[in-house]
Amino acid sequence: MPATATEILASYGVEEDTDFYREFTDPRDRAALTVPLRITHAWKTNDADEFAGVFTENGSLLMQDEQLTSREQIRAYMQAGFDGPLAGAHVKGWPLQVTFLAEDTAMVITQGGIILDGETETAPERQIRATWIVVERDGEWSLLSHQSSPIRG
Fold first, then answer.
1. Any residues with CB less than 8 A from the CB of 43 and at least 6 apart, and which?
2. What percent of the chain has pLDDT over 90?
3. What SS3 class is residue 126?
4. Residue 58 φ then ψ, to 5°
5. Pfam families from the xrefs (predicted)?
6. What are the backbone dihedrals phi and psi of residue 139, each rounded to the nearest 5 degrees, phi first?
7. What pTM was estimated for this model as a whole?
8. What secondary structure does DSSP assign to 53-110, as a single string?
9. CA distances (Å), 130 to each of 16, 97, 109, 122, 146, in order?
10. Is 146 in contact with 131 (CB distance < 8 Å)?
11. What is the pLDDT of residues 65-99, one digit of tens each?
C-alpha cells in the first residue's frame, strides 16, 4: 500500500497543512501535492539544501530568467537568494489542478507567490502561477520540473 500524504510529509519532518489540498481529496492527489508542501516548508525555513533535495537529481527549475538543470545549480541559486534578497521570505500558494499523466507522473498547477520578510501577503508583482511535474519512484515523490510565471506584468 502506498504511503499517505501524512506519512510522506512526516518522513521529511514537514507539518501537514490539510487546508492546502482544497478540493483535491483523493489520496493520490494528496501524495503528489506533498511536493509543493515540501517546497513551501523549505522556503519557510530558508533551507536551500532541503529545497534542492525535493528535486530529482536531473531536476529543472525555471526561476525568473534562470534555467537551472541540476540539484546543485538549484541549491546554489536558492542559497544565494536565501542569503540575500530572499532572506526571511516564504511562499504561500494553493493547487488549481492535479492531472496524472501516468501512474507515477503528475502535472500540478498552483497559484501563489513569494512573501518577503515583514510582509503579510504576496504583493501583486510577486503573484505567480506555477507548473510542477512530479514523479514517483519507489514510493518517493520528487520534483522533475518547475516553472513559474507572473500573473501580472
1. 51, 89, 90, 91, 114
2. 93
3. helix
4. -100, 30
5. SnoaL_4
6. 80, 0
7. 0.95
8. HTEEEEEEEEETTEEE-SHHHHHHHHHHHHHTTTTT-EEEEEEEEEEEEETTEEEEEE
9. 21, 11, 6, 15, 7
10. yes
11. 899 999 999 999 999 999 999 999 999 999 999 99
- Which grid cell is 152? 501580472
Reply yes or no on domain 5-150 having CATH 3.40.50.300. Answer: no
Q: How far apart are CA 48 and CA 66, in angstroms?
A: 16
Asked if pLDDT for residue 45 goes beyond 80, the answer is yes
Burial 42-64 (b: 16+ CB within 10 A, else e): bbeebbbebbbbbbbeebbbbee
105-115: strand order across its sheet: 66-68, 55-63, 140-150, 127-137, 105-115, 90-102
Kindly calculate the radius of gyration of the chain based on its CA atoms and give it in whole angstroms: 15
Q: Where are the domains of the chain?
A: 5-150
* CA dihedral of residues 134, 106, 38, 82 (deg, nearest 10): 50
Q: For residue 115, how many C-alpha atoms fall within 13 Å in the half-sphere facing its CB?
A: 13
Percent of the chain past pLDDT 70, that is, above it, reads: 99
Neighbours of 100 (CB within 10 A): 14
